[in-house]
Amino acid sequence: MSQTDYLTNRILTEDTVYVQYRKTAKAPNIAQPHTHCGYEIYYFQHGEATYIIGDKVYALKPGDMLLFRGEIVHLVKPSERVPYLRSILNFREDACGSLDALVQKKLAQLFGASGGQIIHWTEEERGQIEHLFFSIAQEARRREVGYQDMMHALLTVLVLRIIRKHEADLVRNRIIRGNGQREANIERTLHILNQKFRNRISLEDVAEQVHLNKHYLCHCFKQVTGLTINQYVTKLRVDEGKRLLLHTNKPVVVIAEEVGVGTAAQFSRMFRQQVGVSPNAYRRGCHVD
């Protein structure tokens, strides 16, 4: 939730697959909760990072791969101490339309988890996975005759490898790598915030529900997410406000109440600080962010 990744949405409107291969630079919205259309395959190759998808917190290691629907709010907090390297594939559901019905069902289940799904590739397996990413990126860059068909074929191979890996890990009962207590505390906190941000919730209420001292909770939340609790809740409220502005005719005063802010003046001030325009200007199509 919060910011919408308009670049990914635009590319997936024009093409069915969007690849970013061995990216090291930080994207402008990397530290902010954001959403986009389609599915995402996020392959972590080097560094240290914490990734949040919905209510789940993942402490990533090289070789980890995250699978999730882009519509789920997500953000990543890479460590500043070491280089950050990842490859990303975003694709529309119809990009794998050639798969048979059973595999399509498995694909939907795999990407359907509310907190995403994680699998881990061994060092021996990573070469093949990285070669598939490289090949897809090469087709996208060269754009030679039939490049879209080649990208779809390579994506299909990657997806099938992922499904087989996931099922093999389930059989071996190795798919879940437990987080520490700190991450578990933040997952509970995220669940509460994502469910109750439309209400008037206080820090004391949240701390009581997760059975933590409020100062310690704030410290852990900032450490894991890179945001304060207030910043995170503000992002959720602004994003819900965007949705209501674009898809309903409700007046700003009603929207303010529904997103848990209170008055129209408070909501307008918060909205302008986050988005760069007033709620009414945003409704008219002035999308600065």
Give a topology summary:
Elements: E1 3-4, H1 6-14, E2 17-23, E3 34-35, E4 39-46, E5 49-53, E6 56-60, E7 64-69, E8 74-78, E9 85-91, H2 101-111, E10 117-120, H3 123-142, H4 147-172, H5 181-196, H6 203-210, H7 214-225, H8 229-247, H9 252-258, H10 264-275, H11 279-283
Parallel strand pairs: 1-3
Antiparallel strand pairs: 2-9, 4-7, 4-9, 5-6, 5-8, 7-10
Helix pairs in contact: 2-4, 3-4, 5-6, 5-7, 8-10, 9-10
Walkthrough of the structure:
The chain has three domains: 3-172, Sandwich (Jelly Rolls); 179-226, Arc Repressor Mutant, subunit A, CATH 1.10.10; 229-289, Arc Repressor Mutant, subunit A (Orthogonal Bundle). The protein is built from eleven helices and ten strands. The chain has helices spanning 6-14, 101-111, 123-142, 147-172, 181-196, 203-210, 214-225, 229-247, 252-258, 264-275, 279-283, and strands at residues 3-4, 17-23, 34-35, 39-46, 49-53, 56-60, 64-69, 74-78, 85-91, 117-120. Strand 5 and strand 6 (56-60) form a beta hairpin. The chain is globular and about 55 Å long.
Features:
globular, five-stranded antiparallel sheet, HTH_AraC-typ_CS, Arc Repressor Mutant, subunit A, alpha+beta, AraC family transcriptional regulator, 3 domains, 289 residues, Jelly Rolls, single chain
